[in-house]
Design brief:
By secondary structure, this protein is α+β, with helices and mostly antiparallel strands. The chain has a 3-stranded antiparallel beta sheet with strand order 3-4-5. Strands 1-2 form a two-stranded antiparallel ribbon. Strand 6 and strand 7 form a beta hairpin. Helix 7 runs antiparallel to helix 8 and helix 8 packs antiparallel against helix 9.
Length: 322
């Protein structure tokens, strides 16, 4: 049966109904004719210029982009004043470099470190909340569906003094997740914030890779002095040095042993006597390091214990009166 004729448009000859095999053969014949009769077209020249790439390997375009310095427009400041990149921007550039579906993020660990309920300061006030989470994630990057590599990142996220308990948990979780993702992604180099660890600088620190570039005798990577990571350096500066106190004097040590032996006693006469002995020997306000590392004095220890006994005895007396 002859094929059904399609409408004839201006400048086009009538065609029969769609024939996929015929279309493919016609296209192949036209491509062959154009190549043999007219020589290589611009399309075939571009194909020839492209570097052959094995499946699962980064392309030259991807490598070139990863070796560039980060755009200053992408860099901001966090709450501590350190240069950083937002987590959504990290995801944006992973899509740009590796494509949609070119990476996976897996939750390895999520742990509620602490939830603190802050009582209201006024009778009609509302309780506020501080929440802290710890999270660890695994970031896997793929090329052509094959794993290029995977990296882990862990972080702590908090939400302080929030009026809503749900919002406090949500914000702490998001913060921990974002920080963990960024710490994993930084293993992919300068486009993901690696150079920012070099005192917030924007020029690339990777500069090149001998895994992709042919080594040349004149090619040398320029290295800067290795500095502590910003957060680590700040933590070291903010940490208070451990107190260096001399050992307790002989008299104070004897009174501290007496305190330890009598700790369970609720006889206030004993505690007052220890205080009088300490005052008489001039060691009542001598500082020493407690077991928890804090610095205290015999006076503070005695005052605290006496207050506990008086509170317990007062509660017992009220119970008997009731």
């Amino acid at each position: 049966m002859p094929g059904r004729l399609l409408p004839t448009w201006a400048g086009l000859a009538p065609r029969t109904s769609h024939d996929p095999l015929g279309d493919l053969m016609a296209a192949a014949t036209e491509a062959l004719a154009s190549t043999t009769a007219e020589g290589p077209t611009s399309h075939t020249q571009n194909q020839a210029d492209q570097t052959a790439r094995r499946r699962g390997e980064l392309s030259p375009a991807q490598i070139g982009y990863l070796l560039r310095g980060i755009d200053p427009m992408r860099v901001g400041k966090d709450g501590k004043g350190f240069a950083h990149v937002e987590a959504w921007d990290i995801r944006r550039h992973m899509i740009r470099v590796f494509g949609f579906g070119g990476f996976d993020t897996d939750l390895i660990d999520m742990h509620l470190v602490e939830q603190i309920d802050i009582p209201p300061e006024h009778p009609n006030g509302k309780t506020r909340y501080t929440v802290v989470y710890r999270m660890a994630v695994k970031l896997t990057v793929k090329v052509d569906g094959l794993e290029l590599g995977h990296w882990h990142g862990a972080a702590i996220g908090d939400a302080t003094n929030q009026p809503s308990l749900a919002d406090a948990h949500d914000l702490a979780l998001k913060t921990a997740d974002s920080q963990a993702l960024k710490r994993a992604a930084v293993n992919m180099g300068d486009q993901f914030g690696l150079s920012l660890y070099n005192k917030g600088r924007l020029d690339p620190v990777v500069q090149g890779s001998l895994a992709y570039l042919k080594p040349r005798s004149e090619q040398e990577f320029k290295d800067d002095k290795v500095e502590p990571e910003p957060e680590v350096a700040a933590a070291r500066e903010q940490s208070d040095p451990a107190p260096t106190l001399p050992a307790p004097s002989e008299r104070l040590a004897a009174l501290l042993r007496q305190v330890s032996e009598c700790w369970k006693s609720d006889n206030l006469l004993i505690w007052n006597q220890i205080g009088m002995d300490g005052d008489r020997h001039g060691v009542l306000d001598e500082e020493f390091a407690a077991k928890d590392g804090t610095v205290t004095t015999l006076r503070k220890v005695l005052d605290g214990r006496i207050a506990e006994i008086q509170a317990a005895q007062g509660g017992a007396a009220e119970g008997q009166a009731a």
